[in-house]
Design brief:
Strand order of the largest sheet: 2-3-4-1-5
Distance between the termini: 71 Å
CATH architecture of the largest domain: 3-Layer(aba) Sandwich
CATH class of the largest domain: Alpha Beta
Order of helices and strands: HHHEHEHHHEHHEHEHHHHHHHEEHH
Protein name: ORC1-type DNA replication protein
Bound molecules: adenosine-5'-diphosphate, magnesium ion
Function: Involved in regulation of DNA replication.
Number of domains: 4
InterPro entries: AAA+_ATPase (IPR003593), AAA_16 (IPR041664), Cdc6_C (IPR015163), Cdc6_lid (IPR055237), ORC1/CDC6 (IPR050311), Orc1/Cdc6_arc (IPR014277), P-loop_NTPase (IPR027417), WH-like_DNA-bd_sf (IPR036388)
CATH superfamily of the largest domain: P-loop containing nucleotide triphosphate hydrolases
Largest sheet: 5 strands, parallel
Organism: Natronomonas salsuginis
Keywords: ATP-binding, Cell cycle, Cell division, DNA replication, Nucleotide-binding
Number of strands: 7
Length: about 500
């Protein structure tokens, strides 16, 4: 079994080997993962640092969590809680806190046997009125199905007992075995009537009424959590919220309360005033974390995530400081810590050091830039590419006119529409806001004012991303016409 041993000496590998001894080479390369598995890994449980993990403790969010609970406790008394709107930038713990509260609410409702249910929807994924209503309808159809089946089991049992001893019916709503039978038949037909909503194809009002009937099937208080609600409104308007927020006046058995969660503090500006006042009955703000709070959060998670004594002392404070600069984002802090750990693991060191955190910061920043650049519209990519070509030729403090000239040539080269210099100036301002270029307005005395543009992102990586775009990649060789600019 030599071929399976971890030690592969590259010199032993005959890379030019013929087809008939390729079996041997194949076996020899089985050491591939052994190398990587070697050495003590740094992580005890890396999953704990991923966004999908829901922590059981949320330090520095006691106030917000208590506020939510104070409003929602109404549901446990069988009444309708006020609608709640939650605001805060990304990574301030909104989703984690909302999920925590909803789990507690459901557990308590089961303990006291009060019918209260929470439905969570992520509107970044489920982003049209049709999909939101269909998803809700189908969830309640499922729940009703389980509710009916439990009830059928109880009733079947009661019927059997009552058939032997009619006194079994004394404390029930039924006066005869036949009445129990009737109820069973009626429930069985209800079970068949619920028609799940298909993913597409029904008129919206049919989806809505299916959802409505499913929710109203029996007495209960329902809290609908719409996370990333700003994405839903941005994409599909506020019809969904309008419909949901006026349901209560028509429901007979159940009550609905809405909890909207938004990353965008100004999102209610886009809402119909009626929706706005109904949805924002209660508002809870999640402020950014400061560096000290981020340290606490990281400390808690690090204890479970890492093997003991693998983090050097300055790692957590540095992750916290970087993330605090980035608007107090706990997600960024956790990403940094995880990435730093991964870099240490890849470097086969035994501890995570400050240098790993700095590298992680660079890596995450670069990933962000790559993603932003990759998703720019073609015209912005061409403007950015023009800027890069100028920088590559040693031009700094580039002005708008220079960018425009090269941009025009690029457009001609790939037969794209040429925008006006004014529009190009706007696109440059957008690139500035995204942090891709830095454009400052400078006065040129009697020649008026111009912009001085410099690239704020790594040149080579950004160029590579631009050229991977199928349109921009059509530019064969830009050097001649960039060079021509210097010649005249
Ligand atoms: N107070 C906290 N304690 C522990 N972890 C937190 C806390 N706040 C946020 N997190 C973690 O940070 C990440 C981002 O939080 P999340 O709730 O998704 O933010 P938001 O929904 O506001 O964008 C998640 O991994 C979450 O578990
Ligand atoms: Mg969230």
């Amino acid at each position: 079994m030599d071929g399976f041993s971890g030690d592969v000496d590259l010199e032993d590998l005959d890379l030019d080997s013929d087809a008939d001894d390729s079996g041997e080479a194949d076996e020899a390369s089985r050491g591939l993962f052994d190398d990587l598995l070697e050495g003590e890994p740094i992580f005890e449980n890396k999953e704990v640092l991923r966004p999908s993990y829901t922590p059981h403790k949320l330090p520095h969010r006691e106030e917000q969590i208590n506020n939510m609970a104070t409003i929602l406790v109404t549901a446990l008394r069988g009444e309708t809680p006020s609608n709640i709107l939650i605001y805060g930038k990304t990574g301030t713990g909104k989703t984690a806190s909302a999920k925590f509260v909803s789990e507690e609410l459901e557990t308590t409702s089961q303990k006291y046997e009060v019918p209260c249910e929470v439905e969570y929807i992520n509107c970044e994924v489920t982003d049209t009125q049709y999909r939101v209503l269909a998803q809700l309808a189908n969830k309640f159809i499922d729940k009703n199905g389980r509710y009916i089946e439990n009830r059928l089991e109880e009733l079947g049992d009661l019927r059997d007992r009552a058939a032997e001893d009619p006194a079994e019916l004394d404390d029930t709503d039924f006066d005869s075995v036949a009445a129990v039978e009737n109820e069973i038949t009626s429930l069985e037909s209800d079970l068949e009537e619920f028609d799940p909503v298909p993913m597409t194809g029904w008129p919206t009002d049919r989806v809505y009424s299916t959802f409505f009937d499913a929710v109203d099937y029996h007495e209960r208080v329902v809290v609908i959590m719409l996370d990333e609600i700003d994405k839903l409104v941005e994409k599909s308007g506020d019809d969904t919220l309008y419909n949901l927020s006026r349901m209560n006046s028509e429901l007979d058995n159940s009550r609905v309360s809405i909890m909207g969660i938004s990353n965008d503090l100004k999102f209610t500006d886009f809402l119909d005033p009626r929706v706005k006042s109904s949805l924002g009955e209660e508002e809870i703000v999640f402020p950014p974390y400061d560096a000290t709070q981020l340290r606490d959060i990281l400390q808690h998670r690090a204890e479970i995530a890492f093997k003991s004594a693998t983090l050097s002392d300055d790692v957590i404070p540095l992750c916290a400081a970087f993330a605090a600069q980035e608007h107090g984002d706990a997600r960024r802090a956790l990403d940094l810590l995880r990435t730093a750990g991964e870099l240490a693991e890849r470097g086969r060191t035994e501890t995570v050091e400050e240098a790993h955190v700095r590298k992680a910061q660079e890596k995450i920043e670069l990933d962000r830039v790559v993603e932003v650049v990759r998703t720019l519209p073609t015209q912005s990519k061409l403007v950015l590419y023009a800027t890069i070509l100028l920088e590559k030729n040693g031009v700094h403090n580039i002005n708008t006119g220079e960018v425009f000239n090269i941009y025009k040539r690029l457009c001609q080269e790939i037969e794209a529409d040429v925008l006006t210099q004014r529009r190009v100036t706007d696109l440059i301002s957008e690139l500035d806001m995204l942090g891709i270029v830095n454009a400052i307005v400078v006065s040129k005395g009697r020649y008026g004012r111009t912009k001085e543009i410099n690239l704020s992102v790594p040149l080579d990586e950004t160029e590579a991303v631009l050229l991977s775009d199928s349109r921009v990649g059509e530019v064969e060789d830009a050097q001649p016409f960039v060079q021509a600019r210097f010649d005249n």
